[in-house]
Specification:
The structure is a single chain. By secondary structure, the protein is of the alpha+beta class. The chain has helices at about 5-35, 40-45, 80-85, and strands at about 50-55, 60-65, 70-75, 115-120, 130-135, 145-150, 155, 175-180, 185. It has two domains: about 1-40; about 45-185, Rieske Iron-sulfur Protein, CATH 2.102.10. The protein is globular, with a radius of gyration of 27 Å. The structure holds FE2/S2 (inorganic) cluster. FE2/S2 (inorganic) cluster (FES) binds near residues 124, 126, 127, 128 and 152.
């Protein structure tokens, strides 16, 4: 038996052994990965649209629903609140929401489909705190709005950020649509138009 044959045989054995080990190892490594890709019911539910019943939401009040792990605010603005909005522009960094995140149908002064109902993701665009709702005008918020206690960012009652505060953008508006006079679907705007 030449050295070549021995070497070839051993090489073949080593090659087969390595391949089998590799396949077993790859299978073992892939199994938990593949299992981890299977979406659980909870994961699916977290990404699903959420329906909000606004029938009991009083004028001037806010309700909060959870969507994708985030607080979504629905504020029922009074005529006085809406009347104060056009005068806010001079205080705001991005009054036209040019650099902010919202669907096209919410890129207007009211940032809403129906101006009475404001829908926002209630997470500060600076570092993610949840701002306080301040419905009544006060020294710092002349038309009422939202104050982030973490670093002092302020937003008006359309969620538009003030100049000179750390938050860079207006509060985001999620996709949404009305599915009845008293029901809003958050996370789905199929059929909604600009
Ligand atoms: S997180 Fe809101 S101001 Fe910093």
């Amino acid at each position: 038996m030449s050295d070549d044959k021995v070497d070839t045989g051993r090489r073949h054995f080593l090659s087969v052994a390595t391949t089998v080990t590799g396949v077993i190892g790859a299978a073992a490594a892939a199994t938990p990965f593949i299992l981890s890709l299977k979406p659980s019911a909870r994961t699916q539910a977290l990404g699903a649209p959420v329906e909000a019943d606004i029938s009991k939401l009083e004028v001037g009040a806010r309700m909060i629903v959870e969507w994708r792990g985030k607080p979504v605010w629905i504020i029922r603005r009074s005529p006085e609140m809406l009347k104060a909005l056009p005068a806010m522009d001079k205080y705001l960094r991005d009054p036209g929401s040019e650099e902010s995140d919202q669907p096209s149908y919410a890129q207007n002064a009211d940032r809403a489909i129906n101006s009475e109902f404001l829908v926002l993701i209630g997470v500060c665009t600076h570092l993610g705190c949840s701002p306080e709702f301040r419905p009544v005008p006060e020294a710092e918020l002349s038309g009422g709005g939202f104050l982030c206690a973490c670093h002092g960012s302020k937003f008006d009652l359309s969620g538009r950020v003030y100049k000179g505060v750390p938050a860079p953008k207006n509060l985001p508006v999620p996709a949404y649509r009305f599915i009845g006079p008293n029901n809003i679907l958050i996370g789905d705007d199929t059929g909604a138009s600009a």
